[in-house]
Structures are given as C-alpha cells and as structure tokens.
Design goal:
TIM Barrel, 523 residues, 17 helices, alpha/beta, 3-stranded antiparallel sheet, 8-stranded parallel β-barrel
Length: 523
C-alpha cells in the first residue's frame, strides 16, 4: 500500500464551519497538539486574510515543530495580473512556511462564470503561481477545486489543469471533492484515471455533504492517493470536511497503512480541539465518542465481558478510549492510568490510589467537569488525592460587583475585594477590571505577588464559558476553561458552578496553584 501523509486543515477549512472560531492562542495550541500527535502537515490559515492568521504565522515561525510542516494557504494569481505583482501570492512567501498550498479552478463553469477569465488564462494562472512559489524554494501542494464535478462534465479540461500544475513543478496534486456530493465508486474511478494520466500519486480532499467524506477519502487511497486532507472532528464549510479523527484509525488500523501516529492519543486530541472550539463532544463519534464502546445490559454485556471483540470492532485502548459497561464500577481505570503516566505518575492497575482518583474524576464529571483541555486541573486532582499538594493560600471571602449608571454620561465599573490567609498572614486587597472576572483576577494577583513574585510573569491568556445544562435556564451550570501562560508554556484549568463567578474563581485558583507547585518543583 502507498505511504500516506495526513494534512490537517482544521485551522483554515475547519474554521469556515458554522460556530467554529479560534483565537491566535487557540490556533497555536491546536497546532502544537497536532504536531505532538504526529500529523504531517498543518495548514495554519490564509496569510493576510485576517489578523489572527497573520499573527499565527508570526508565532509559528518562532517555534520548532517536531513532525509537522506548517503550511500557508492561498490561491493562484489573479487573472490578467503578473504573479510577482499579486499581493496575496507575496503574502504566502512572507508567511515563511516550508510548504504552501494553493487552490485553483478546475471546473470551466467556475473559470468563465466566477473568475470570468478564459480557460487558457486559467491554465496560465495555475502554472505561473506554482512556478513562482517553486522558484522561492517552497514545497507546493496544488488543490484542484471542484475536480470531481468538473471531471464529470469535462474530463479533458480537468486533466489539463492538474497537468499544468504538475508541469510547473507542483510537489503534489490534490483532488478536491469540494461540493461533497460524489460517491466512493466515482471518486475511486476518477482518482485511478488521474494517477494514470499524471504518472504519480495524488492527494484527496473531501467534504461530507453526502455523509461519505471519510468513505470517499478511503476510496481515493485504495486507488493510490498518498495524502488525505481533512479536519479534526470534521469541522468545515456546510456540514463539514472529511473527519480525520475517523479516517486516521481506519487507515492505520483497518487498512494497515503506518501513518506514524500514536492513536492512543486520538480521543484526547478530538476532545481537546472540541474544548478549544467550545463545541460539545459528539458522544456517538466513531472511535472516540463516549458511546463508541459503551455496552448496556442484556446479551451485549454478557458477551463483551467474556470476549470483547464480539461487540467491539477494535480494542478501545488503541484509540485512547475506554470500554464502559453500565453495571461495572471498574471501567475507566486504563484512561486514568494513561493520563497519569503522561504526567509522570506511575500506578499499578487496581491500586487503591487509582480507584480513589477514578472515583473523584467520575464524581466531578457527573457535575459537569471536563479535563481534556484542563490538564493542569487534572494533575492537581491527582496530587490532592495522593496528598502531594496543599493550598498556597486560603480564601476567607471575596466580593465582586458590577455597577452601571444609565444616561448619556453613564459608566460601568467592576470591582473585586478579596480576603485571604497567605503563609499564616491575613491579606485584604481591592482592585478593578474590565469585567467581574478580570477584577477578581487582578485583586487575587495583587494579594499574592508580594508573597510569590513569580506570579508577576503569569497571565491569563484565554477564557471560555460553556453552559452545561441549558434546559435549566438561568439556573444552568456553567463550565469555565481558563488558559494561563508564564511566557514559556501554557496550561488549562477548569471550574464548574451555577454561578459563573464561582466557576471562574475555581479555574483561576487552580491556574495559580499549578504554577506555584511547579515553581517549587523547579527549585
């Protein structure tokens, strides 16, 4: 079977999905997680299209990436313009990425009706842009947009477009099933024909409008495609893109293609990206959903307890998931062991400490906590259960106010007062902020920095709120995810309460406690 690479476009194509948005810090954190997982290409966005993408490429250029090539995305030069004069092509070079992906028109309908250029000019636009980027020592991937719709109507011209890109020096031609309406048999047939015509493998980029985005990608690989493009959790335009979380285990486990990926981190990756996107996890997601390996009563439970493969198509541990049998209180140990080991803890399966940690995790998750993107809170949970952590300060009380005056001269003020006991001494501080949470954060730091100077270098980098049980109306529980940074690394913490201020306080305190604990370890 042809070696296959994975190309992730969550940070560009994925963000075109309804309700999906990432801050610059989110994008960096997602890219770091993908790189750690072993993804081969990470498309960071479209340089110059918005400030967040521009900031991402600036930050990405400062980092060393373990496995992934950070990739900038753009399009062919504009019609009737020299490639060297096109500012968006220059922005691709300015992004300083080792690889560049450009999209070009394949379908005559788009060329003449949307771009309003001749078919010959479109071929020149493709060739000129590829050649210019190759001249500047970039690896060039050419995305042939709407290739399958075009091939159905005009196979001759469709092949001319990809041949133009190849002859100009493109490193890989990627066939895009942009409208998501083709079926696997057609995708496989066309992919074989293109590979025969070009004399080398191609990549595949599918959408999921017909519910077969993953199936179409697998069909293309069967035909000889050597790259699959997609997004984490299938985010994307309309109903979404090929879901990499589903396609990667299918390729590596079912089709025997070694992608070089540690699939035991698959569920963690899926949930991490959902948390940063502020999207509820799909409990029925293949491989990684909570329900994917859940068995309830009757014949299924009886059979699975004797021989798991009777009702499981793979071992859930292979993809970082766990078997859940409703009548068992033993489920979940493996997950705790894996997560704890990644943090440096060593436990034997069945050890009393594992049982205690698992019981606490289950209790907190039943109340609405999620730890996938709150690794710092999870570590503190373990240390508290093991008696390895005691609070750096004790809360006596806090008070937060928001005052707004109406009228043309109206104003608003947010103020927080905090009473603590720090190292045996009472501390009382007052501070203001842009909102009640910011005021609370400022007052807390003001109280602690004199005792713990390293906190002056720590800052709140991101703050997300999710309503957990919206059916409860204004009494619903709120989950707050806080991301903090000390300038060198970032970490996430979580808090849950029916009161958003209390949930925020809990996440803020965990963030500070985590920082101080690791500062002491480093001494």
């Amino acid at each position: 079977m042809t070696p296959v690479t994975i190309y992730d476009t969550t940070l560009r194509d994925g963000t075109q999905g309804t309700g999906i948005s990432f801050s610059t810090l989110d994008k960096i954190r997602v890219a770091e997680k993908l790189d750690e997982f072993g993804v081969h290409y990470i498309e960071g966005g479209w340089p110059g299209s918005n400030p967040k993408d521009a900031a991402f490429f600036q930050e990405a250029a400062k980092r060393t990436w373990k496995t992934a090539k950070i990739t900038a995305f753009g399009m062919t030069r504009r019609g009737k313009m020299k490639v060297e004069d096109d500012p968006q092509v220059q922005m691709l070079l300015d992004a300083q990425t080792p690889a560049v992906t450009i999209v070009g028109k394949t379908w005559p309908l788009h060329v003449t009706e949307v771009f309003q250029v001749s078919l010959e000019e479109n071929l020149a636009m493709i060739a000129d842009t590829v050649a210019w980027l190759k001249k500047h020592d970039r690896e060039v991937l050419y995305d042939a947009e709407h290739f399958f719709d075009s091939f159905r109507e005009d196979p001759e011209y469709s092949l001319k477009t990809v041949k133009a890109a190849q002859d100009a020096g493109a490193d890989l031609i990627v066939l895009c099933e942009t409208n998501g309406g083709a079926l696997p048999e057609f995708v496989e047939e066309v992919t074989r024909k293109v590979i025969a015509h070009l004399g080398r493998p191609v990549g595949i980029h599918t959408h999921n409008d017909g519910g077969v985005g993953v199936a179409n990608a697998l069909a293309a690989v069967r035909a000889g495609a050597n790259q699959v493009q997609g997004t984490i959790n299938g985010y994307g335009e309309r109903v979404g893109n090929c879901n990499l979380i589903t396609v990667m285990p299918n390729l590596q486990i079912k089709m025997g293609i070694d992608l070089g990926l540690n699939l035991t981190k698959l569920r963690e990756l899926a949930n991490f990206v959902d948390e940063l996107a502020n999207v509820p996890h799909d409990i029925r997601a293949p491989y990684v959903g909570v329900a994917a390996f859940t068995h309830k009563g009757g014949l299924h439970v009886h059979a699975v307890q004797k021989l798991a493969r009777t009702y499981e198509h793979v071992d859930p541990a292979l993809v970082g998931n766990e078997r859940v049998i409703s009548i068992s209180d033993m489920s979940g140990q493996s997950n705790v062991l894996v997560r704890a080991e990644a943090l440096g803890f060593k436990f034997a399966k069945g050890a009393p400490e594992v049982q205690a940690i698992l019981a606490e995790v289950k209790r907190l998750e039943s109340e609405g906590y999620e730890f996938e993107a709150a690794e710092a809170s999870f570590e503190l949970l373990i240390r508290r259960q093991l008696g390895q952590h005691s609070p750096s300060f004790d809360l006596i009380e806090y008070h937060s106010t928001h005052r707004r005056r109406g009228g043309p001269q109206g104003f608003e003020t947010c103020e927080a007062t905090i009473k603590l006991k720090v190292q045996g001494e009472p501390v009382y501080t007052v501070d203001e902020g842009d909102g009640p949470v910011n005021a609370l954060d400022n007052a807390l730091r003001k109280a602690l920095v004199p005792h713990f100077p390293s906190l002056a270098k720590m800052s709140l980098a991101d703050y997300k709120v999710r309503i957990i049980d919206s059916g409860a109306g204004t009494a619903a529980k709120t989950r707050v995810l806080v991301v903090s940074s000390d300038g060198h690394r970032t970490w996430g913490t979580v808090g849950v309460s029916t009161n958003i201020i209390d949930a925020s306080w809990e996440a803020l305190v965990d963030s500070i406690e985590y920082h101080l604990f690791h500062q002491n370890l480093a001494k």
